[in-house]
Structures are given as structure tokens and as C-alpha cells.
Amino acid sequence: MHDLKFIRQNPEAFDAGLARRGLPPESENILKLDEIWLRATREMQKLQEQRNEKSQLIGELKRERQDTTSLMEEVGKIKEFMAGLESQEARWKKDIDAALAVIPNIPVTDVPDGQDESDNKEIRKWGVPHDVAHAKDHVDLGERLSLMDFETAAKLSGSRFVVLKGALARLERAIGQFMLDTHTREFGYTECSVPVLVNPNAMYGTGNLPKFADDAFQANTGHYLIPTAEISLTNFVNDTIVPEEQLPMRLTALTPCFRSEAGAAGRDTKGMLRQHQFYKVEMVSIVAPEASGAEHERMTGAAETILQKLEIPYRTMLLCTGDMGFASRKTYDIEAWLPGQQKYREISSCSNCGDFQARRMNARLRRMNAKGTEFVHTLNGSGLAVGRTLIAVMENYQQADGSIVVPKVLQPYMGGIEKIDVPTAR
């Protein structure tokens, strides 16, 4: 959500920020609605003052045993008019909120301008892409081992689902546990077990509603299945005033995630890259405004550490204005090298949302020894997407005979198994 005060004082800057995202100006429409609402608010204040004055006068006259009939009739009419005006005021405020709710965050100045992923900026690379002769993709590897079953998944649920079996299912579990242990032990995140069904207010708070309702699965109870644990974790501070001494708040969770992929028709239809259900380790930080820039770099470094420990080559990209998410003001994508595709593919996205989500959630910070409150800043990042990390491990650690070497950091989670091949796959 955007700051109305900022739009009133800086309409040109607000529209310029939207233009960087390739969007039309919105300040004129917002300010028109704002003026109507402010006019109603001022009128309501005047009526309240009149009512209070007349009510006070009625009290004085009653003490003097004087007739108050006409004054009471006036107060009654004022109350009746106020009730109608209050309803109009609420409707106009709702119109403003509805207009603001679908306008994305404004990118910060160091975000490069651009239309799509081709305009993203490479920040750094780590590792050298593995020289894998006749590299196979994860689908060929998994099906040869008889541990990756799309046919059964389609029978159960349709397309964009998978059944993993045996050592490959265990490897997926190992990856998630390794990520959680790294983030909690090395980076101070608090592990959480959170609901995967949330109410619409939680989805609204992070910016997933109303604009992206088609991308989510909704239960017949009105709950939504989370597309990422960001929803659950960020809403810990929904409608909350957080004391400054409790910040930074760093939270992590491993959850199943559910996405309809409504806008992804025809994209990555083969394999596990884009599924309706997948596991992901999510990181969320709640910080004071002045700390969010450094926290963004720290969070991205935590995600990169996972790939470094797994010894998987990657590159870190600064997303351009046309490729950023709705709630983000700055985003880094981490892309792992996949030999089976001979390209880098996204495996993590780390975003600084500033106070955009906090305004939607009314999440505030109270400074020590200071009056009033201010909005916190929120950040979120994948640490990492478990399914895509499984793909990266399979493709980067494949052997000529179709077996898969288990990375050293994962072997303790695999009961000492060093290699997955047909004889040991079960």
C-alpha cells in the first residue's frame, strides 16, 4: 500500500515511479478520490463539533430547568445527517484503498529500468559450470532411476504434479532439512511451523490479494492455500506494534506451497520446474526502516550460502523494473546452473518490500524513548526452493551411468548414502 501523504506532496514522483514499471499515471485519480474523502472527513468534523456544542448547551439548559425540545431536535437531525455522511465517507475511503491496493510498489533508484528478464543486471557469479558430457535433464535422470513418476501424479492430480520415491524422496527431504539447519544455525533465523491455510486478510497484507487471486488456490472455507510461507511469516506482525528492541525479527519455515500458475500456460511444462505443489524454505525479516538495505544483502547472502555449500554454480541478478514482483521495491534473483538445460534458472528470489506490506498490514514499530510509531520494513526470500534445488543437485551431480552423487553436505541427512543409482535407489 502506498502513503497517501507522499502522493499528495509528490504526485509527479509517484507517477514517475509507476512509469519506470511501464504503468500509466495514477496520482490524478487517487487525488480526486482523496479530495472527496477529505471533504467528507472535514464536514464530519464540523458536524461533530456542532453536535458536541449543542449537547453541552442542552445539559446546561436542563440544569436550569429550561425547555430543550428544539435543541434536541437539532441534535437528532445532526446525528441523522452524520450517519449518512459516515456511510459515504467509509465508501469513499474504501474506493481509495481499492485503487491503491492494485498499484505495485515503487522501485528504488538503483533498480535498472527494463521491460523483462533480458534487462536484468548480473551482479556476480560463483563457481564454474560443470562440464557434464552428454548431460541429461532431471526428468530423464529421475525416470531412469524409477524414482520420479509423473504418470502416477497425473492420474492422482493432473498435470504439474510429481511423485518422488525412495532415495530421491529422501534427497528432497534432506535438502529441506539442510537448508533449515543452515539458516537457523548460521544466520540466526527462528524456525517456525506455520499454517498453510490462511485467511484473505493475510493474503491481502502481503499483496497477493486482490490483484493475484487467480494465481491462488482457495478452499471452500474461504481460506487460501499459501503460495509461499512469506504469507504466514510476514503476517506475524499484522496489526501489531513491535518494540524496537525486538528487531530485527528473522523467521524461516519449510512448507508445501501451492500455485495455480494461471499466467504460466505453456511454460516449463516438462518436469518439476513449475508445479502446482512444491516445497520451499522461506526467509522473512522484519526490520527498522534504516536497516532494510543491509538486511536485503544479508538475506541474499544466506540464500547464496546454500548453493555454495552444495557446490552448485550460480549467478545473482538484480531484477529490472519490468521483472520485479508486485510488492517489491528491489529484488535479487539467484539462478543455479542446470547442465541438462545448459542455462541458469531461478532458484531463489530475495526482495526488499520497504513499508509497502507493512502499510497493508498496519505493522508498526515503536522506538525506544520516542513518541508515536512508524511502519516497519519487511523482506522475504527463498532459501531455497527445494524442488528446484533437487533439480540442480541431480543435474550437476549426475554421472555417465545415470547415477547421482550425493553432495557431501547432504550425506549425513541421507544416512551416509553417497550415491543414488538403480541398485540403491530403493
Give the tally of β-strands.
18
Number of domains: 2
Q: What is the global morphology?
A: elongated
For CATH, the homologous superfamily of the largest domain is named as Bira Bifunctional Protein, Domain 2
Indicate the CATH topology of the largest domain: BirA Bifunctional Protein, domain 2
Placed side by side, the strands forming the largest sheet appear as 1-11-12-13-16-10-9-4
The CATH architecture of the largest domain is: 2-Layer Sandwich
CATH class of the largest domain: Alpha Beta
N→C terminal distance:
51 Å
Q: Roughly what fraction of the amino acids lie in strands?
A: 15-25%
Order of helices and strands: HHHHEHEHEHEEHEEHEEEHEEEHEEEHEE
Overall pLDDT score: 93
Uncertain residue ranges = none
Radius of gyration: 27 Å
Percent of residues in helical segments? Answer: 40-55%
- Biggest β-sheet strands, sense, barrel: 8 strands, mixed
Q: What's the tally of helices?
A: 12
Structural class of the helices, strands and pairings? alpha+beta
Q: What's the arrangement of secondary structure elements?
A:
Elements: H1 4-9, H2 11-20, H3 27-63, H4 69-101, E1 121-126, H5 138-144, E2 148-149, H6 150-157, E3 163-164, H7 166-187, E4 190-191, E5 197-198, H8 200-206, E6 217-218, E7 224-225, H9 230-234, E8 241-243, E9 249-258, E10 277-287, H10 292-310, E11 314-318, E12 330-338, E13 343-352, H11 356-361, E14 364-366, E15 374-375, E16 377-385, H12 386-396, E17 404-405, E18 419-420
Parallel strand pairs: 4-9, 8-14
Antiparallel strand pairs: 1-11, 2-3, 5-7, 6-7, 9-10, 10-16, 11-12, 12-13, 13-16, 14-15, 17-18
